[in-house]
Fold each of these.
Amino acid sequence: MRLRNIKGSDERILADKYTIQTDGREGAEFKGKWNSDFFGNEHPIHMEIGMGKGQFITTLAGQNPDINYIGIEKYSSVLIRAIDKRESLALENLLFLRMDAENITEYFDRGEVARIYLNFSDPWPKDRHAKRRLTSVPFLNRYDRILDENGIVQFKTDNRTLFDFSLEQLDEAGWQKDFVSYHLHENGPAPDNIMTEYEEKFYNLGNPICKLVAHR
Ligand code: SAM
């Protein structure tokens, strides 16, 4: 998702106390110290990569004050919508990073993250772009480095081709699957599930939503 550039979004992102743009490696000084130096507590860190407009992670952060949430998004034009949501809720446990997740190991230390959410990640349908998919082996290897020993990845998508690819990649990387569903909302909206913006759209269109949870 890349929205039309919104005038002033870079300035607003710069001024926002709970958003870090990683250009010029800003933010890397927190590597291994996000809890002590940024959040000021020892709560577990849960992260959403490619959070888009932030409905999912903002809702979770409001429900779980004892978890530190970090939302990662590549584009300012999308991130600004998440900042709007968070501002109205004054959440202290939610940080946004504007960055390409390819660089995630430069910003997070071994074992620093307890959970990674991937929701409706871009499918990158061309074979030559497979390594850019957020569930490809190169990305799983990055997650392996930053997750703690009980860490999990949770992935949702309506794209069956991407889902099947992701299951194969988990096998190839030696991960274990804890949960797999090809139709999460078969009997109406699944309980204890927070819908993302994309999930709402595809659910309303009647597309089956796939979900997996996995650990190493
Ligand atoms: N998760 C949201 C949802 O379910 O509504 C947004 C889904 S949207 C299809 C995918 C988002 O991931 C886009 O906002 C895109 O900019 C972001 N994204 C894709 N690749 C990324 C990467 N390598 N690093 C950070 N964000 C990325």
Amino acid sequence: MSTVTLDWGTFTEARFLREVWQRKPLLLRQAFAGFAPLLSRAQLFALAGDDDVESRLLQREGRRWQLDHGPFARRQLPPVEQRNWTLLVQGVNLHVDAASDLLSQFRFVPDARLDDLMISWASDGGGVGPHQDAYDVFLLQAAGRRRWRIGPVRDATLQPGKPVKLLAHFTPEDDLILEPGDMLYLPPGWGHDGIAVGNDCMTYSIGFRAPPQGELLKEVLWQLAESQHGGPIYTDPPLREGAAPALLPPAMVKFAAQAFAKLKPDAALFESVLGAYLTTPKPQVWFDRVEATPASLRRACQRTGCRLDRRSKMLYTAQTVFLNSEAVSAELAPSSLLRVLADQHKLTAQQVKDATPAELTVLAQWCAQGWLLTGEVAPPVATKTRTRRG
Ligand code: SIN
Ligand code: CO
């Protein structure tokens, strides 16, 4: 567990949610007083060299920007003394327990909104330029100093010909210097431009995605279309000799429109599609399979219980429970134990002991898939599985 905890100071969490969240920026000086970086610069650079880790390198020379995508061997990164470059490592919480623990301090926001923890390292002058994000973000200064210029975006025109989206006409309203432990909250769409002041600047971005309605609709429509798979086959109305061969038959257009009009999505469908979608692990996530049976799980949990793997994503609704894009069986859908696991990310030894046979069976299956971990480390099976839908 990260040793320092989020301190709201004179502010309170309730006041933040009521007055600030999604409305306006807030700077919390020493929100994490005494914060020590969870990874050293060398450890972060090493992570950026990993195939399973998403990373970007952004370098600036005057008005020229260069973007490269990882993985990066150390020699592919510029020397740390060179000015104006930054390395951005995405999804650090998927790889480092301490980073995942840090995110657990932000669970006053629903898990369904959580995206990831991105860590940036920047040399003096480094940054990603003026931009806006479709995220609520907490920018925690972990090491060094960063100057943030922030303000509402009145003109979203982008600079042409740049490898990253840079605002062409950004007029900041506030100019702030963040020291280690300070944290700046920005609502989605707020303009910001952070520049490292001095070397060894590390910023942690705790991002909460605000999914566009069209994206959620796409998932629902896709699922609905799948459920209609097959259906009646199009038949031509009586054809006339000499009709224009390239004309798209209006009857075929009507046929497709009728299929759409027949769709009657109910609330349960929206819940099941969103539950599966929002618990889909990130594309680069792999789980290590292990041998596990209900009996072996019960034994392994006797002293320490069990916990979700940090890469697992779990949500529930009043109807059912989702883990890593799968909904549980109808028999387990009402389980309060599984909801405790989703909220707490762990179960005590006693809770596992009290599990019903069906609950124990599903817990053992999740353990075998590597989604759930017991205190005792079971030997990994040779195969790794990537959990994906479809
Ligand atoms: C950074 O850490 O340099 C970028 C974070 C952001 O602007 O969202
Ligand atoms: Co940003």
Amino acid sequence: MSEAHLWWQRGIVYQVYPRSFQDSDGDGVGDLPGVTSRLDYLRWLGVDALWISPFFPSPMADFGYDVSDYTGVHPMFGTLADFDALVAAAHARGLRVLLDFVPNHSSDQHPWFVASRASRESPYRDWYLWRDPAPGGGPPNNWRSNFGGPAWTLDEATGQYYYHAYLPQQPDLNWRNPAVRAAMLDAMRFWLDRGADGFRVDALRQLVKDEALRDNPPNPAWRPGQNPYDAQLHTYTTDLPEVLTIVEAMRDLLDRYGERVLIGELYLPIERLVAYYGPGGRGCHLPFNFHLILTPWDARRIAALIAAYEAALPPDGWPNWVLGNHDQHRLATRVGPAQARVAAMLLLTLRGTPTLYYGDELGMADVPIPPELVQDPWERRVPGLGLGRDPERTPMQWDAGPGAGFTAGAPWLPLADDYATVNVAAQGADPRSTLALYRRLIALRRAEPALAVGAYAPVPASGHVLAYTREAGGRRLLVALNLGGRAASLALAGRGRALLSTHLDREGERLEGALALRGDEGVVVALDA
Ligand code: NOJ
């Protein structure tokens, strides 16, 4: 493997949603000791790092993305000692640990906000965004919350509104205030000193808002029935130039610790996304690239996406790809179970760091949540549009036993109906399972520098076939993916040997002249020199 590449370039990131990964104490909610107990599984799977969604003290209005103490652990998840034990156990296994840092907003129960709200004269007033009502009364401008409704909430006692990009319980911090910057960088330092290998930074594009409070313009492309937040363009509330200066400050801090990684949560078009590598590469190591989630599952569209992304990357910008997370409907639900295997091969053979979402390696699908069991505040505030995120956050399916091996108690979200068959124990014993495919793909990526760090080149293909080569040190691999359900074929210049099929049944097959693909099949071929 190339020595010139860093661990987060060669490696694979695995996202753990801690509420749903492993419960160790029977309260139905996952916790840090639970994660520690499953590190051997992650080693066995072959990933290099885990990113753990927030486990900090929080009233849980947004399941931990409303932090009331940036340097603690919520008792439900464990203690600081449990965190230290997790990091030590992970590092002993060669696994890195990435934290989820939530800088845009705190909880309304955070002592900073409690003090800020107390009076207009509070020394903490300017830590958040307070404004007088509009001249005739009402919110200061037309800005909308990501989670429905206005982004301004009136505090009756002090007669001013505060801004929240998400829930009213998630007031936005004022990043123009140097004291806020210093306090938040201190919080990052706290975790770096405790051994964190980096951060996924939440809601990064939202950090700075227009000082003049200009109204956001309407979005002409929006249609009724779509997410109401997108009825406006987010011109004055997201992706302001000042955000990059904050990213640079975070990056400077991380760089003082050596090989740490800064990942930004950035839902942005490609041309804006790549700006977050920063001038001179001084920004995010990995601005999260969500475009495989957002692009229709169509070979030509995806070929065009890869070409556009590769072309837009700055010279030293390392690419990355993502197929799922705790905010997006499950991969197997979006593209169907058969194509989910093809998607796995795509993710794990593209150029750039892949991030896996827990359970996708089993082909876990969205679990329908009956209205009375809905937990997600977004679904509660904007019901019926399919925005709710509970379906993709259900417990990890470890085995066929009660609680799916996730909990000895009552799980906080329902288990999938199919957990008795779709689980780690069953799939681990089945050499053709989705889990077996993920393991084989990960092992192949590890064994083949061409896949981990090699050059990418598109290969012309038609219909539902997507094809490309990866090459390093004279070794050239062809990846051919059939995104359709019918048989297809790809012309092969020269000869080769099949290394892996998504069907896990044709390794070693000699190929010449053409590669025949079954429906929903992807194949990695080693091309003869
Ligand atoms: C993005 C997180 O991934 C999501 O789960 C959360 O609700 C919002 N940011 C607000 O923190």
Amino acid sequence: MEQSIESYIKNLVRDVIGQNLGGLELQCDRQTYVIANWKMNKDLNETAEFFQKINSSHDVSVVICPPTQLLYPTQLFIKQSGKPIGLGGQNVHWADKGAYTGETSGSMLTDVGCEYVIIGHSERRQYSFEDDELVNKKVQQALKSGLTPIICIGETLGQKSAMQTEQVLYKQIIGALKDIDTAHFILAYEPVWAIGTGQSATAELAQETHAYIRSILRQLMGQKAEGISILYGGSANERNAAEYSAMPDIDGVLVGGASLNAHVFDVIINAFAKGEQNS
Ligand code: PGA
């Protein structure tokens, strides 16, 4: 797809620049993403209807992550629509292949047209007991398969109240990126207390946290950190998207509930498209 070649080249340039000019200060052009995480929602008809209604935009990278059984038809709907929309999985197994009932491998995802995969979502960390070590194995597998991992991190309400946010995020980032020497990934800061609750983080709090996350990335990979997109997720919607898009370290959003309605999702996409044009 047109967009994937563009993002591949951008990532490549970003990596080469990061390696050659490691110590120098330079401003990198980060990609802006608006990503839909449909979770366990939508059937085939609803998906077809969504692609009839969605407008999308050439100014931001729009990615849809439907449930696994809808990946292939979604790829076809995207092609038919002719719109610049990417496709992502919601999960990947760490192994290449084998006796893992119900799981999906990296090559199965790319086979049906995926370029992205969500890894370490707090819902999976909770009900599938995914820890940082497993998240790291999945990130390795995604990269090996040619997928861009969308790595989710975030603190629970209890951890926030105990003022442990920075500690928690630090541990999750270090854990997820162990032995990873590329910048071909996206980070999504998703405070667990904000997911599906309507209690979104204020744009100021999200910006402050994203700046902290970028400072950790700088420690880990130097200048390459400037090119990594950090998305906000957690009750992001058509009403607060513009506020997030105005923040310098918020490079897009990972949207759950508000991504299910094409018109609502379009408003969010437009908020970031305008943000890009203004910057
Ligand atoms: P939400 O979900 O937008 O419904 O809060 C976001 C996510 O879980 O990725």
